[in-house]
Specification:
By secondary structure, the protein is α/β, with parallel strands linked by helices. It has two domains: 60 residues; 211 residues, Glycoside hydrolase/deacetylase (TIM Barrel, Alpha-Beta Barrel), CATH 3.20.20. The chain contains nine helices and eight strands. The strands form two sheets. Strands 1, 2, 3, 6, 7 and 8 form a six-stranded parallel sheet that branches. Helix 4 links the parallel strand 2 and strand 3. Helix 8 crosses helix 9.
Length: 304
């Protein structure tokens, strides 16, 4: 009987060891599976998070192909921090009195009157590069710009990069429309042009030299910028930050052409304008409208 009991105990002990081993194996497998699922879930989350970041960045980065093939209307936001022209002859020297030209693109808009009111309050003249498409209700603002002594220039009729830069004929057609619109509304035969996106933007299949040569034939001068406010970027700058952006760069140049925007969603620009004018005046800057005597600021200086 003792032998039978001992054998039975050994079998029970063996079964317990097997059960413990099975339990250990099952627990280990389940733990491994849980860890694997957790890691996979984390990796999937990171992949989707990275994809969202890539998508967000993609919206801010335009290539020439993207613009030409897919975009009907775009703003200048992706260019705002790109073209900061370095011109040795225009570098400020000690004792220079800086000349600053405030330029407003894309108007007229619901903010034009407010901008003009502020300029009038400070007895400051500026330059407005206007567009035409959808602006028929702003005839009085076109006229007011001119009547109050500001310079009016062309910024294309449609501001549709894809169409304007698709061919020489398309550019000429657009040019004639904005030129005639300004003439009809103001009586001014404008000889001043700003390329949508600036002269160095690589949009369309036609080299900018074709458009530049056409402007030369018309006796038209084009102006880019060498100081940016940042008011066209996707980042929501405060009015104080817009002022700081401008003041940081105007100290570098004898002649500063400042890129600002006159659009209905540019409330921060309107809010910043008084402080910007006061900061420039405190620095001794001459704030002027662009004229035939203004130093030309180009991003493209030679025929391509």
């Amino acid at each position: 009987m003792e032998g039978s009991n001992e054998g039975l105990e050994r079998q029970r002990a063996k079964r317990k060891r097997v059960a413990r081993m099975k339990k250990f194996i099952v627990t280990t497998v389940l733990a491994f599976m849980l860890i694997t699922i957790t890691v996979m879930g984390f990796l999937v989350y990171e992949v989707f998070s990275l994809q969202r970041q890539i998508n967000a960045l993609s919206k801010q980065i335009y290539t020439a192909t993207d613009v030409a093939d897919n975009v009907e209307m775009i703003d200048d936001s992706y260019l705002d921090g790109v073209y900061k022209v370095e011109d040795i002859d225009n570098e400020a020297q000690e004792g220079d009195i800086p000349k600053v030209y405030l330029t407003f693109d894309d108007g007229p808009s619901d903010n034009t009157d407010a901008i003009l009111d502020i300029l009038d309050d400070y007895n400051v003249k500026a330059t407005f590069f206007v567009v035409g498409d959808g602006k028929e209700d702003y005839a009085e603002q076109y006229k007011r710009i001119v009547d109050e002594g500001h310079t009016i220039g062309m910024h294309s009729y449609s501001h549709a990069y894809k169409d304007i830069y698709s061919s020489e004929e398309a550019f000429i057609t657009d040019y004639n429309k904005i030129h005639e619109m300004i003439l009809d509304y103001t009586g001014v035969d404008s000889k001043l042009y700003r390329f949508p996106g600036g002269s160095s933007t690589n949009v369309g299949k036609v080299g900018k030299s074709v458009f530049i040569n056409y402007l030369n034939e018309q006796g038209v001068q084009y102006y880019d910028w060498n100081v940016v406010s940042g008011d066209a970027t996707s980042q929501a700058y405060t009015s104080e930050q817009l002022i700081d952006n401008v003041m940081t760069d105007v100290v570098k140049y004898k002649t500063s052409v400042v890129l600002l925007h006159d659009a209905s969603d540019k409330g921060a620009t309107v809010e910043a304008l008084p402080g910007l004018i006061e900061a420039l005046q405190a620095q001794g800057a001459m704030i002027l409208p662009i004229t035939d005597e203004t130093t030309v600021i180009h991003h493209v200086n030679v025929v391509q």
